[in-house]
Amino acid sequence: MKRSRGFSIVESLIVLAFFVIILAILVPSLLESRMKAHEATAIANLEQICQAEAKYAGQHNGDYTGLKTLIDEKYLGQEFLGVTGHYTFDIISVSGTGLGFPASFSVLASPVPGYGRYAYGIGPDQVVRYVRVMSEFHFPRGVEANDPVDKALKK
Question: Could you read off the pLDDT of 34-78 as tens digits, one per residue?
Fold first, then answer.
């Protein structure tokens, strides 16, 4: 009788179990890395919007404006109109003028569900801050809403 030269079913199941264990370890860390990349992009985009607001204000007597005007007047690109890097950007308030009144603006970056852990905000002080945390996540240890993002990075 001739013996077959192959793997037994037990050997095949052991190899399959090994791959399943490796995937169970790798997939969560890959997903977290992807979220961190989206968040880094959102922070960079917030800083870009803030710089565009400052440039606009410098050329318009200290007045700030909305996102559509920044795009229409070429201070920002068209990509900021919709979802950019799995985040949406909204200028949620523009107040006052630079002529004797405190001028201000607030920009909010909100993640598309499942693509980011935090919503971020920025204002004229050019400091990116945590605004809120998405439902299944929590702020980094020692960080609360309105704390600068740098505070978490320094720990």
Answer: 989 999 999 999 999 999 999 998 898 888 888 999 999 999 999
| Residue in 73, 2, 33, 36 with CA at minimum distance from that of residue 149 | 36
Judge contact between 65 and 101, C-beta under 8 A.
no
Domain range enclosing 101: 9-153
Please, which residues bridge with residue 129 across strands? 121, 148
For 64, phi then psi, to 5°, come to: -100, 170
59 assigned to some structural domain: yes
| C-alpha distances in Å from residue 116, one per residue of 2, 3, 39, 138, 139 | 59, 55, 6, 12, 12
In a domain, 3, yes or no: no
- Rounded to two decimals, the pTM is 0.79
**Rounded Cα distance, 24 and 27, in Å:** 6
- The angle at the Cα of 44, spanning 135 to 56, to the nearest 5 degrees, equals 115
Give a yes or no: residue 136 inside a domain. yes
CA angle centred on 15, ends 9 and 17, rounded to 5°: 100
Is 2 contained in some domain?
no
What is the count of structural domains for the chain? 1
